[in-house]
């Protein structure tokens, strides 16, 4: 059997390529996710570590592949803050906004009975 020199293509019997393909799929799914920022940079890192033996005639190679994906976009909502009975409180709608008093005859009726 003829020995084959190690290359990125054949290291670990193709493990580096398989790991890269797996991370690339994750990156592509992340790019398509509308909950992420479209233009945020994504990264795939292939790390190859070589640990030789004391005799320096053999060793072990470790292959890792990692991706850095775009995070989920934050959700921003308004907040209205103030004090009630000496305690700080927060509301998503303005508690000082008065409701407009509508009389039934003031509401326009659309065709089909919709208001």
Question: Would you write up a description of this structure?
Answer:
This protein is of the alpha+beta class. The protein has two domains: 11-68, no CATH class; 80-113, no CATH class. The protein contains one helix and four strands. Strands 1-2 form a two-stranded antiparallel sheet. The chain has a two-stranded antiparallel sheet with strand order 3-4. A hairpin with a 2-residue loop joins strand 3 (80-84) and strand 4. The radius of gyration is 30 Å and the shape is elongated. The model has no long low-confidence stretch (mean pLDDT 89).
Biggest β-sheet strands, sense, barrel: 2 strands, antiparallel
What number of structural domains do the residues give?
2
Strand neighbour order, sheet with most strands:
1-2
Strand content: 25-35%
User: Total helix count?
Assistant: 1
Structural class call reads: alpha+beta
Oligomer: single chain
The mean pLDDT is 89
Q: What is the H-and-E element order?
A: HEEEE
Instruction: Find the count of extended strands (DSSP E, 2+ residues).
Output: 4
Q: Evaluate the radius of gyration.
A: 30 Å
Give the end-to-end Cα distance, rounded to a whole number of Å: 84 Å
Fraction of helical residues: 10-25%
Low-confidence stretches: none
